[in-house]
Amino acid sequence: MTIKNLIDSHTHAGMIPYDGFIAMAANGINKAVSCSIVISARYAESYFDHFRAISGFYRQLAAAVGVDLYTAVGVHPAGIPGDWARVIDKLPEFLKEETVVGIGEVGMNNASPLEKEVLKAQLEVARDNNVPVIIHTPKENRQTIVGIMLDMAAGVGINPGLLVIDHAHLDIIGQINEFGAVPGLTIRKQNLTPGVLVDNLELFINGMLNSDYSNIMPNDPAGMIEAVKHMQQENVDANIINEMAGGRAAKLYGIS
């Protein structure tokens, strides 16, 4: 069965080469959500330019090859500028744009006081605007830091169903499910593999597939397709595959 309306629920358009967009379209990924990241950003203007580039130039570039690109805006923990509060103040304005679908990618790498302050401010914007928020999870000390972030989300009053905890794996999926958040399923060797996904499908069944493509590590702009193919080979119910590969993202982000 052909899976229709495939959506990569988390990628980074500014890091995708032209051939990467071609590969996405060729594999049936016709929609994608590009999360924001400006590594080592020093000034708020870096993010403002980044938001405009993704929703303008890169959206047009993707559309030219058959990919409808949407944007999530926010301050990534890998690049918190000194004047980060200026970015937070402008987020509601960017959220009014038709193709901006949420806050992200935000989160923490080491749970420093600065990271906590920046994340809390962005969770409050997501709550006040009733939009999804995509949470980055670190490579180390994951359970502890995810626990801190979930406590923060609960304290702010985020609707659990609008909270996406990305890079979900066996170590944190229990925390995600208990909170009622949406697991973001990043498919690649250094994250979640198709085999682990299918072998533990009951844990990941409420998740959304993504590639989290970037040019700073080995990965595939159409990586989520490997999970779709593996689920089909293992005779996973087509309705489950449809939800994980696009249906859930379409509903969460309001993508028609």
From TrEMBL:
Alphabetical list of Pfam families matching this protein: TatD_DNase (PF01026)
InterPro entries: Metal_Hydrolase, TatD-like, UCP005295
One GO molecular-function entry: hydrolase activity, acting on ester bonds
Top-level taxon of origin: Bacteria
SUPFAM superfamilies per UniProt: Metallo-dependent hydrolases (SSF51556)
Protein's UniProt name: Uncharacterized protein
Record organism: Desulfocucumis palustris
